[in-house]
Every structure is written in structure tokens, then in C-alpha cells.
């Protein structure tokens, strides 16, 4: 609990909160993307729940899930049958809806880290221009000295901001990498089994449509993790380019040393992994699809 409180506190650190008005759009875009992910996953989960509920009615099955019960529920109109039906629907739908809330939360933290990297790149690229704008009203004899001082302060703030982003990324990795690994691993197995089951039924039947919707929701779930993990890697790899695009050649030696330190750290990109086993990237998504297809082909051959 202490670790979780510390990680939440990092969202409110000074370098994350104190941003320029023109950089607020980056945060707003991150929030908008999180909401979009939630809406997509939520409605896909609702679709899964809907087909899970209607499929037994269409196929005239007593209960949605064939499990052991302590009472007999063979009679179609018995009270025990309705109680068992409600219990199966509640358990299945509860887990599905809960997933639609957890996945956007985890991916939202990664999106926020990516947004902070974008803000850092913006500060690094325009540090000289903004310093020049701030000292434009000063007398000529003080302007050069104050500009150098402001640039040095801004770059020190960038270095501190970068360090906070690294710590925040490590915190996400420490708290959630195991959960992401279990989620991706479990979803991969489910995708494989559902694809195999899909080959045994009519694709245009209620069962086939329900299997297709469920497979699509699992694929979106894995893709969200991999896409935004890959986006974090790409943005962190662009820090050195942002420095190169700035007016670094006009800085003094002290400011250039700060840039060198940031560039050296930027050689190691920020990554999120699934259980410290595999890095979240688009390559992982492709690998999951390949392994799922291979396992499905083995099951079909058997």
C-alpha cells in the first residue's frame, strides 16, 4: 500500500503539474485517448455479455455454463434453474465489465508517461526560444547574461523532469508488470482456444458471432497494451532528436553539459514489459498472434 501511495504521489510532482498553457493540449489528448479506450473496451465487453446472455436462450440451454450444482436444475421452469442462470450471468458479466475498467487504467498510466515525454521534448526543443522571449524586454547589456542563466535553469528543470518520468515509468513497471503478463498470457490462450472452437461451429450462428466478438475484444485488449508501450519507446527515443532540433549551438558550456547528460540517459529508452519477460511493443503483439495461430493449428491437427 505504501508503494502504491508513492506511485500515485508521483502524478502530482511539481515537474508533472507545472506545464505551459500550450502544453496542456498534450495532457488533454492523453485524457481523451484514455476515455476512447475505455469506451471501446466497455462496449465490446457489453457485446460479449449480451451474446453470453442470449446464446443459451437461442440454443435452449438450461444454464449458460455447464458446472456442478448442489441441487437439481433439470426442470426448465424450476426456481433453482433461474437462480443458477442469474448466478452464471452475474459471475461472467462481472468479470468482463471489471476488465473494461482495469485495462484502460493500466494503459492510461503508460499514456500519461508518454505525454510527459512529449512535454519534455517540447521544453528541450524550445528552451532557447522561450528564454529569448522572456528577456526581450530587458536592456541590451543584461539580456545576454539573463538569457544564459534562464536557459541553464530551464535545462536543469528538464533534467529533473526526465528523472521524474524515469521514476514514474519504473513505478508502473514495478506495480503492474506482473498483472500485464498474466493478462496478456491468459488472453493469448483464450484467443487460441476460441479460434479453435470457431472452426467447429457455423461462423454466422449465434455461437459463431459470440466467439468472434469475444476474440475481437481479447485482441483489442492485447493491442492496447502493445501499441502504447511501443509509443512510449518511440517518444523516448526522440529525446535526442528534440535536443538536436533546438538552438543548442548558442548555449554556453554549462548548458551543453546538461544536454550531454540527458542525451546519454536517452540512449536507454523507456520501456514497459510484461512480467520482465517481454517488452510491450508491436513486435510482441505480432508474436502473440503467431504463437496463437501455431497452437491452434496444432490443436486442429490433433
Overall description:
With 302 residues, the chain is an all-alpha fold. Helix content is 78%, strand content 1%. It contains ten helices and two strands, in the order αααααααααββα. It has helices at 2-10, 14-17, 24-59, 79-125, 127-134, 140-198, 206-237, 239-244, 253-266, 282-301, and strands at residues 273-274, 278-279. Strands 1-2 form a two-stranded antiparallel sheet. β1 and β2 (278-279) form a beta hairpin. The radius of gyration is 26 Å and the shape is elongated. It starts with a helix and ends with a helix.
Layout of strands and helices, then pairs:
Elements: H1 2-10, H2 14-17, H3 24-59, H4 79-125, H5 127-134, H6 140-198, H7 206-237, H8 239-244, H9 253-266, E1 273-274, E2 278-279, H10 282-301
Helix pairs in contact: 1-6, 3-4, 3-7, 4-6, 4-7, 5-6, 6-7, 6-9, 6-10, 7-10
* Class by SSE composition: mainly alpha
Q: Uncertain spans, ≥5 residues at pLDDT below 50?
A: none
- Give the biggest sheet: 2 strands, antiparallel
Rg, Å, rounded? 26 Å
Number of strands: 2
- Beginning-to-end CA distance, first to last residue: 47 Å
Contiguous helical run count: 10
Approximate strand percentage: under 5%
What spatial order of strands do you see in the largest sheet? Answer: 1-2
What is the 3D form?
Answer: elongated
Q: Return the average pLDDT rounded to an integer.
A: 83
Q: What letter string, H or E per element, gives the SSE order?
A: HHHHHHHHHEEH
Q: Give the % helix.
A: over 70%
